[in-house]
Design goal:
About 30% of the residues lie in helices and about 15% in strands. By secondary structure, it is of the alpha/beta class. It has two domains: about 5-15 and about 25-355, Alkaline Phosphatase, subunit A (3-Layer(aba) Sandwich); about 360-455, Arylsulfatase, C-terminal domain (2-Layer Sandwich), CATH 3.30.1120.10. Strand 15 and strand 16 (about 395-400) form a beta hairpin. Helix 6 runs parallel beside helix 8 (about 220-250). Bound molecules: zinc ion (ZN). Zinc ion (ZN) binds near residues 71, 181, 262 and 263.
C-alpha cells in the first residue's frame, strides 16, 4: 500500500465509520452532451440545473474537468476503464469495448456488488460491449434522437434502486441520460425557448440544421441554445426525481453519488453544430460532481461553502474509475489504470492534481463505404496552455486558456517557443496513452444502425 493510499484509507475509515458493515454504494449519473457552461453551478445565467446545483452544493465540484474524447463511445469507455481511447480502442463507430477490458462494473461485481445499468444511447448498448460487469442492463430507452428518454431512464433506475435497497449487497448503479443530445425537443412547462425563430420551428433534424449552417442567424442560433437549455432542465428534473428516490430509500448516507457528462456541444463557435469534430473547450470540458456518502458534513475541513467544495485543478475523466474505487475503500493501485485516483484531492489530503490533461479524437473507419468524416486530433492541457494538433493536416494550435478562454487567438504562429515546449509533452502523453493498447474489437454496423447513426449526426462528411 502506498503511503497516500494509507492516509486516504485512514480518512475514509473516519468518514464512513470504522467497521462500517457495508461498503458504500455507488450511483454514477452521466448526462449525455452536457456542456459545462450551460449548467447553473458552472456559471450559466439560466436556472437550467437546480438538481445538479444542489448536488454540487452538497459535494465536491471539479471546475475544470475534461473528457478524453468529444463523443459518447470513447469518452464513456475511458470513464469506466480508466484508460485513454488509444488504449481501450473503443474509439470508432464500428468498434466495441473489448471483452479484455476490465470495467468498473466488473471490478465491483467481483467485490460482491450488485450491479445495474440503464442507458439511453445506441453507442452504449450490450452489443457495443458496454454491459460488461452489469448483472442487469436496461437499454430499452436507446431509441434514437427523437425519443424523449429521461422519464424512462428515471423510472428504470428508480426500480433498480428499489431492488438494490431491498437486497443485502452494496450496489453500483449507472444511469445514463440522453435528452440534451439533439434533436431538441420543446418541453411544455419549461419556457426558455419561444415557439420558433426565423426559419426554425424546433423540429429540425441535425442534418436540416447543418444544411442551414452557413446562414443561420444569431436569432436562430439563440433559439437552438434555448431549446438545448430546455432539454437540460427537463433532464435535471429526472435527475432530481432519481436523487429524491435515493433519499427516500435512505440511501444517501451510504451512497457515493457521481455526476458528469461524456462531452459538450458546439453551436457554430467553429462553424459546426454538434460534437465529435474538435477538442475545444465547448466539447471536452464537462461538469463533474462527487457527493460523498452523507454529503460534506462528515468530511469537515477546508474549502467548503454554501456552494459546496470547488476544486480548480484541471482533471480528466480518465480518473473516474480509480477515484470511485479509492473513495469506496478499494485500492486502485492493484489495477492497470492510466488515470490516477483523485480521491486525495477530493478528501483534501493533497492539493496536487495530475499535471497534464490529454484528449484525443481518432476516427479510422473500418468500412470505407461509410461517409464518415475522418478526424485525427490530439490535445494536451498543461497549466494555462492548451495545444491541439491536427494529425491530418499537421496544424498545431496553442491557446492561453486564462487570457483567452474562448480559444480565439492561436498563439502557435507568434510563440514558437511555446510550441517547442508543448509538443514534446503531447508526444509523451500520446505514448503513455497508447501503452498496453488492447486488441480493438470491431462489429460491422447493420443497415438499421447506420440509419440511426445518421440520424444521430455521426455519419456526415
Ligand atoms: Zn454523447
Amino acid at each position: 500500500m502506498r503511503p497516500s493510499t494509507l492516509i486516504t484509507t485512514m480518512v475514509l475509515s473516519a468518514v464512513w465509520g470504522c467497521g462500517s458493515p457495508t461498503p458504500p454504494n455507488v450511483l454514477l449519473i452521466v448526462v449525455d452532451t452536457l456542456r459545462f457552461d450551460h449548467v447553473g453551478c458552472y456559471g450559466h445565467v439560466r436556472d437550467t440545473s437546480p438538481a445538479v446545483d444542489r448536488l454540487a452544493a452538497e459535494g465536491v465540484r471539479f471546475e475544470r474537468a475534461y473528457v478524453t474524447a468529444p463523443w459518447t463511445k470513447p469518452s464513456v469507455a475511458s470513464m469506466i476503464t480508466g484508460l485513454y481511447p488509444s488504449a481501450h480502442r473503443a474509439n470508432q463507430l464500428e468498434s466495441i469495448a473489448s471483452e479484455s477490458l476490465l470495467t468498473l462494473a466488473e471490478i465491483l461485481r467481483d467485490r460482491g456488488y450488485a450491479t445495474g445499468g440503464v442507458v439511453s444511447a445506441q453507442l452504449l448498448t450490450a452489443k457495443r460491449g458496454f454491459a460488461q460487469g452489469f448483472e442487469i442492463y436496461r437499454e430499452g430507452n436507446a431509441r434514437g434522437v427523437k425519443h424523449v428518454s429521461t422519464p424512462g431512464v428515471t423510472r428504470k433506475a428508480a426500480d433498480l434502486l428499489d431492488r438494490f435497497a431491498a437486497g443485502e449487497r452494496p450496489f453500483f448503479l449507472f444511469a445514463h441520460y440522453f435528452d440534451p443530445h439533439y434533436t431538441y425537443t420543446d418541453h411544455s412547462g419549461i419556457d426558455f425557448a419561444r415557439a420558433g425563430a426565423g426559419r426554425l420551428t424546433g423540429d429540425e433534424t441535425v442534418q436540416e440544421l447543418r444544411s442551414l449552417l452557413a446562414d443561420l442567424s444569431q436569432e436562430e442560433l439563440g433559439f437552438l441554445r434555448d431549446l438545448y437549455d430546455e432539454e437540460i432542465r427537463f433532464t435535471d428534473r429526472g435527475v432530481e426525481e432519481l436523487l429524491s428516490h435515493a433519499r427516500e430509500l435512505g440511501l444517501e448516507s451510504n451512497t457515493l453519488i457521481v455526476l458528469t457528462s461524456d462531452h459538450g456541444e458546439e453551436f457554430r463557435e467553429r462553424g459546426w453544430l454538434g460534437h465529435t469534430r474538435s477538442l475545444y473547450e465547448e466539447l471536452i470540458r464537462v461538469p463533474w460532481i462527487v457527493r460523498l456518502p452523507g454529503g460534506l458534513g462528515r468530511l469537515g475541513g477546508s474549502g467548503r461553502s454554501a456552494r459546496g467544495r470547488i476544486l480548480r485543478e484541471p482533471v480528466s475523466l480518465v480518473s473516474l474509475t480509480p477515484t470511485i474505487l479509492e473513495l469506496i475503500g478499494i485500492d486502485p493501485t492493484g489495477f492497470w489504470f492510466q488515470g490516477q485516483s483523485l480521491a486525495g484531492l477530493i478528501l483534501g489530503q493533497t492539493d496536487s492534481a495530475p499535471g497534464v490533461i490529454f484528449a484525443e479524437v481518432d476516427y479510422r473507419p473500418g468500412d470505407r463505404e461509410l461517409p464518415i468524416k475522418r478526424t485525427h486530433k490530439k490535445a494536451i492541457l498543461i497549466d494555462r496552455f492548451k495545444l491541439i494538433r491536427d494529425d491530418e493536416t499537421g496544424t498545431v494550435e496553442v491557446y492561453d486558456l486564462e487570457a483567452d478562454p474562448g480559444e480565439r487567438e492561436n498563439l502557435a504562429p507568434t510563440r514558437p517557443e511555446l510550441v517547442d515546449r508543448l509538443l514534446p509533452v503531447l508526444r509523451s502523453a500520446l505514448e503513455r496513452a497508447a501503452e498496453g493498447a488492447v486488441e480493438g474489437g470491431v462489429r460491422k454496423l447493420s443497415e438499421e444502425e447506420v440509419e440511426r447513426l445518421r440520424s444521430l449526426g455521426y455519419l456526415e462528411s
